[in-house]
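Catalogue entry: protein

Sequence with per-residue C-alpha cells
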Amino acid sequence: MKSVRLVLLASLALLLVAGCAASPKTRDYGVLDAKLEREALYIVPFDATLVPTDFGEPIFNQFVDILNARRKQTRVGRFVILKEELKEVEPAWLIKQNYVSGDIWGYVESSGCCSTDMKVKSRIYLFEPGKNTPTFEVFVPIESYVDHDRSTVAAAKARMGNKLAQELADAIIKKLTP
C-alpha cells in the first residue's frame, strides 16, 4: 500500500513539474498547404539586439542547421539565409517569397551565490508569397536554472540556446511536413 502511495505521489509531482515547463505556442493565421512544393524558403536573420551576441547568433545558426538537416521531411527545395536584415530587403522581391523572420528578446540572468535563473523569449513568423501578414507564428519562452556546483552559467546558457533553436526548428518543420 505504501509503495502505491509513493508511486502516486511521484506521478503527481512529475505532472506538476512538467505542467510548469514552458512550451512553444503556435498560431495559424491562414492555411498552409504542406503538400505544395517550395523551391526555396528564405530565412531572415533574427533580430537579437536585446540579447548577448554570444547567445543570439548561435541560436540562429543552429536553427538553420536543423532546418537543413531535416529538409527532406518537407517539400522545400532549400533553405536560404538572407544576408541582409529584414528592413534592408527589397519589399517588392520579399512579398513574392516564402520566408521566415523572427526575433529573440527578454534575455534575463539572475545570479545568486549558488545558482542562476535564466530566461529568454523568441517569436518567429512564416510568410507565404503575396501575403503581408504571416501564415504561421511560433512563440517560445525558455527558462533555465543552473546550480553552480553542478554546471557553469556558460554551459547552461548554451543548453538553453540549443533548446530554443530546436523548438523553433521543430515547429517550422512540423508545419512544412506533408
Helices lie at 2-20, 53-69, 91-94, 153-176. The longest strand covers residues 99-111.
